[in-house]
Amino acid sequence: MREDINSTEFLSRVTAVVPEKRQMDFQKLGYYNFIHFGLNTFTKKEWGSGKVSPDVFTLADIDTDKWARELKNTGSTGVILTAKHHDGFCLFPSKYTDYTITATKYRNGKGDIVKQLADSCKKFDLKFGIYLSPWDRHESTYGTDAYNDFFCNQLRELCTNYGDIFCFWFDGACGEGENGKKQNYDWNRYFEIIRRLQPDAVITNCGPDVRWIGNEFGKPRKSEFSVVPKNLQDNLKIAEMSQQKEGATVMLKAPSFTDKSLGEREQLAGQELCWYPAEMNIPVTYFGWFWRPLFEIFFTRSVRNLENCFYNSVGSNATLLVNVPPNDKGELPQKFINRLVKARKRIERRFISKAEIIGITQNKNDFVVKIKPQTVKTIVLSEDITKSQRIEEFSIIANGKTVYSGTAVGFKKICILKRSVKNCSKLIIRMDKCRLQPYIKDIHIY
Ligand code: FUL
After folding, report:
1. What single-letter DSSP state applies at residue 355?
2. Cβ–ligand 1 contact at 212 (below 6 Å)
């Protein structure tokens, strides 16, 4: 029998789903960065073939402190580095392959960019994460069981030699075809290694902790829910779903991650559920993950666009991962950093004049907030997600008029009013639809 989506039984089951501690810590990070760097930076390709000579990597050294300092200035909380992309080339001296940074001139063949950046992140108080592509176009064992051992060995190296890792980012792309090489990834074994060696790390994208928001254009759903059907995490599907053709933008074929709506009551009925919050990943250019001069010149996102991406993710119950790719001099292009810094300043400006809250009273579904009179333009709401995500529809009423209608709140919802309300002294946050009673953690008014 189909579950009654309005019954207390059903809603109790849904609201019993809450985050793990590692998911909670991760959500607090808000905005952080990706760094795509490797041989592709020099060949100006998105997907390296795995046959490119390490000689194309011509740099003798890089100032990763500068990367960390500059990213920190953009308001970032962490950095995820492509330790290995699909071409199989490793930025760290993996013992299990020769196709690594030690085969280049970099630091006279003694370099380890993963270590370098991990240290720089520590210095600048940034979290450090690892992107390790399961798809490997260089490794000869790829497509056999031995590759799973190889991949696990690399994972162990990365889990043990670089301090705390906050995130392992597994890419779903797996495009080999012509030579028939296809890998059955032993995901459970990979996850088990990470859980054992880096228990606080989240496993993202092709992993059980954080889900892909479903596009790379900076567009969230109308409502982003963190409670979703558990079968979304189903690893076995990943191979079929994965991206098979080179392209700057990933289009997974499976409908699930890209579904227009996810986690609405109808989609949860009769399903096993899990806590699986969204991450929005975007390149700082409108497309392309590795640096390309033309992309930098013509397609760097505008300050406005970056600002909106922030509200659409961090302000809409997701996290924001922005890729900032170093150029072939090993530097983060100033244009990227400048735009991100400007976006940060614009965002910060919005939150300067915080209203002094005189009192909050709850009257059934209304939270009545009295403030010292001022002009109001932005309201930030947070649910106590240790009690799950509950709000489905809400409205904000000021001076007797509805000034905002919204849907999901979750960890954080930034509500920007179309028109600011002058001389506002009282706001009502009305819960129009909720999964049992709401648990509001914070209300901030600006
Ligand atoms: C995709 C990859 O194919 C791209 O090259 C990039 O790494 C992006 C973040 O994920 O699946």
Report:
1. P
2. no
